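so my prof wants the structure for this chain in the tokens format not the other one, which i didnt know existed until like an hour ago. anyway here's the sequence
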Amino acid sequence: MKLVWCSKIASKSYIAAVNALADRNLKETNVAEMVSALAGGWKAQLVVEACASGAGAATSIALQAAIQHAQGRHVCVVPDE
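here's what i got, hopefully its the right format
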């Protein structure tokens, strides 16, 4: 399997993440925007995210925006309390 960087999808993913996070009052969105650009640029087909309960939603929102451009799937695993 060969990974190929796609700058066009990376930039679309970044812009989609910025737009998705713009209306929300969330902290640390710059990291989420970068992660979304990476996921989109590498055309990730499956993103599995392990979230802590009560963790911020910025990364999840940004990854969901990115994965739509890469035409993949996003799974968020949250521990049962």
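also thought this was worth mentioning. Helices lie at 7-22, 29-41, 58-70.
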